[in-house]
Amino acid sequence: MKNFHLYAITGEEFHPRKDVIDVMEEALQGGADIIQLRDKTSKKPDVLKKALALRELTLKYDVPLIINDHIDIALQVGADGVHLGQDDLSLEEARRLMGPDKIIGISTHHIQEARAAQEGGADYIGVGPIFPTKSKKDVVAPVTTNYIKEVAAEITIPFVAIGGIKLHNVDEVLSAGATRVCMISEIVGSENVQQVCSQFREKLKPYQPVNLIVNGENHELHVQSIQELVLHFKLKPNLIIAEVDGEIVDRDSWSHTPVKDGTKIELVEFIAGG
Ligand SMILES: Cc1ncc(COP(=O)(O)OP(=O)(O)O)c(N)n1
Ligand SMILES: Cc1ncsc1CCOP(=O)(O)O
Ligand SMILES: [Mg+2]
């Protein structure tokens, strides 16, 4: 499945005067890279209408569309996947209906559910609610950032943290080990949806790995500068010459020489003395 980091879920009760499709377009413009239609109150034909409109929108932005709860609607509109709760149909049944290539996400609240989801073939898991939230009526008690730590240490499929996440507390979520976050109210309830999404993207940046080619080998690393790269490889800075995309970079500039996906770096260690 295509990687994602900023997951925006619809929540029309948070923007009574704005159209859901416009709100989600603003989220996409701000950098949301996966969208979920979650509508717990509309009649099925209305959910279907919104799903069709969101399908068109997400294809325009080349971003996956996930439908919450309704597998039939997901199939009917050609969505990329479905999100299941623990009490919905089984992963096995969902996979049988959706086929091998569609995305199936499932909510988890403790590590046993996370293990079962991974073994059962889920493509990603929801991890939450991390904090208290008013966006879900039948919500369980907050699982706290401790659950993120457990999942990050053990689970190998992608996981996304959800529940009560705001710009002011997302750092706690990311420093506990999450690299993907999912929000309803903080995104769609904002006056400036695009700006909030861009702010989340900025918060996420330091936690995203970059793909670098270091001395001819591909590495996926959590580093932001040449300085951090040299430290990552536990090299002695004063014995290293760094070449970035063919240009030698002065040691004094390493800390403010950013690295991005695809950068080619040569780190040459020289032997001091004669
Ligand atoms: C990404 C993500 N994680 C968790 C949920 C919650 O799903 P569920 O437990 O089925 O509850 P409802 O959303 O249906 O109330 C989610 N939707 N998305
Ligand atoms: C759907 C869902 N599942 C767990 S918490 C939650 C609600 C998330 O909404 P918010 O980001 O507004 O707290
Ligand atoms: Mg559900």
From TrEMBL:
Residues 6-187 form the Thiamine phosphate synthase/TenI domain. GO terms for biological process: thiamine biosynthetic process; thiamine diphosphate biosynthetic process. One of its GO terms (molecular function) is magnesium ion binding. Its EC number is 2.5.1.3. Binds 1 Mg(2+) ion per subunit. 2-[(2R,5Z)-2-carboxy-4-methylthiazol-5(2H)-ylidene]ethyl phosphate binds at residues 133-135, 164, 184-185. Gene3D superfamilies: 3.10.20.30, Aldolase class I. Belongs to the thiamine-phosphate synthase family. This is Thiamine-phosphate synthase. It comes from the Bacteria. 4-amino-2-methyl-5-(diphosphooxymethyl)pyrimidine binds at residues 36-40, 68, 107, 136. Its cofactor is Mg(2+). Condenses 4-methyl-5-(beta-hydroxyethyl)thiazole monophosphate (THZ-P) and 2-methyl-4-amino-5-hydroxymethyl pyrimidine pyrophosphate (HMP-PP) to form thiamine monophosphate (TMP). Mg(2+) binds at residues 69, 88. It catalyses: 2-[(2R,5Z)-2-carboxy-4-methylthiazol-5(2H)-ylidene]ethyl phosphate + 4-amino-2-methyl-5-(diphosphooxymethyl)pyrimidine + 2 H(+) = thiamine phosphate + CO2 + diphosphate; 2-(2-carboxy-4-methylthiazol-5-yl)ethyl phosphate + 4-amino-2-methyl-5-(diphosphooxymethyl)pyrimidine + 2 H(+) = thiamine phosphate + CO2 + diphosphate; 4-methyl-5-(2-phosphooxyethyl)-thiazole + 4-amino-2-methyl-5-(diphosphooxymethyl)pyrimidine + H(+) = thiamine phosphate + diphosphate. Keywords: Magnesium, Metal-binding, Thiamine biosynthesis, Transferase. GO terms for cellular component: cytoplasm. Pathway: Cofactor biosynthesis; thiamine diphosphate biosynthesis; thiamine phosphate from 4-amino-2-methyl-5-diphosphomethylpyrimidine and 4-methyl-5-(2-phosphoethyl)-thiazole: step 1/1.
